[in-house]
């Protein structure tokens, strides 16, 4: 969430973030007195009364997943809520209304603090929303983020996203299609109609197949494999489309496919 400095603020302690009047800062966690913010790759605390903040109606940091489902239940296709991630404080999730049900994605952040869902990266949530207002947030159908609640996307319901595979050469029948989605595993069960898919082209043998982490992933569940950006993970099992089993530094666990890329 973006905010603009109303006055100059000079950081006094190491955990504070200084800025000038008119500077654009990114709010990571909102508080009535001190907010956690980021600017130019640096994070720190900033005084709320030094900032000019306008919250759009789609930003609901304290909303739970259940709150988002209830809010979006009778909304138009493409309406959405960005909310704080309860399992990973300081991060955000986006819940989007689809034709049938809804999808929940965790928004990832790289080491520079940029947000991303697929390949495109954004310096703020506002810029991410602006991008997906005119670019489909789904990879298997056309779904634009709808911020005004009146856009009728029914005309897109029967359209398919055209993918061009001519530039790829399928060397082996073992080449498989896997889904590249968010971290919240429970939503796959309730929203199978909204599964997005893209291609990973795998080697003929998976006995020594490796992937590299493109962002940090903190393990939340006991069966998950945590890692940092740049870690190389040995893939042990790719039978699940969204979560693979891997090994890193002697630890075995599940990790999300969309947080890695093939080597």
From TrEMBL:
Pfam families: SH2, SH3_1
Residues annotated as domain SH3: 1-56, 206-263
Keywords for the protein's UniProt record, in alphabetical order: Lipoprotein, SH2 domain, SH3 domain
Classification via InterPro entries: GRAP2_C_SH3, Grb2-like, SH2, SH2_dom_sf, SH3-like_dom_sf, SH3_domain
PROSITE patterns for the chain: SH2 (PS50001), SH3 (PS50002)
CDD domains: SH3_GRAP2_C, SH3_GRAP2_N
Domain SH2 as annotated: residue spans: 58-155
PANTHER family for the chain: PROTEIN ENHANCER OF SEVENLESS 2B
Protein name: GRB2 related adaptor protein 2a
Encoding gene, per UniProt annotation: LOC100707796
């Amino acid at each position: 969430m973006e905010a603009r400095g109303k006055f100059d603020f000079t950081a006094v302690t190491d955990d504070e973030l200084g800025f000038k009047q008119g500077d654009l800062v990114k709010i990571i966690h909102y508080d009535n007195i001190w907010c956690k913010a980021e600017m130019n790759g640096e994070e720190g605390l900033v005084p709320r009364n030094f900032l000019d903040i306008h919250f759009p109606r789609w930003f609901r940091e304290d909303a739970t997943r259940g709150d988002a489902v209830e809010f979006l239940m009778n909304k138009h296709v493409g309406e959405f809520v960005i909310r704080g991630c309860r399992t990973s404080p300081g991060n955000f999730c986006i819940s989007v209304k689809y034709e049938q049900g809804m999808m929940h994605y965790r928004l990832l952040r790289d080491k520079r603090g940029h947000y991303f869902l697929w390949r495109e990266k954004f310096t703020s949530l506002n810029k991410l929303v602006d991008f997906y207002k005119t670019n489909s947030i789904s990879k298997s159908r056309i779904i634009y983020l709808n911020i005004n609640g009146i856009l009728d996307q029914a005309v897109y319901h029967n359209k398919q996203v055209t993918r061009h595979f001519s530039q790829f050469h399928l060397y082996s029948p073992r080449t498989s299609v896997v889904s590249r989605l968010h971290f919240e595993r429970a939503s796959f069960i309730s929203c199978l109609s909204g599964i997005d898919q893209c291609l990973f082209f795998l080697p003929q043998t998976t006995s020594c197949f490796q992937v590299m982490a493109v962002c940090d992933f903190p393990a939340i569940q006991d069966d998950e494999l945590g890692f940092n950006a740049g870690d190389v993970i040995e893939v042990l099992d790719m039978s699940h489309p969204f979560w693979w089993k891997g090994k890193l530094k002697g630890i075995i666990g599940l990790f999300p496919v969309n947080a890695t890329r093939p080597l």
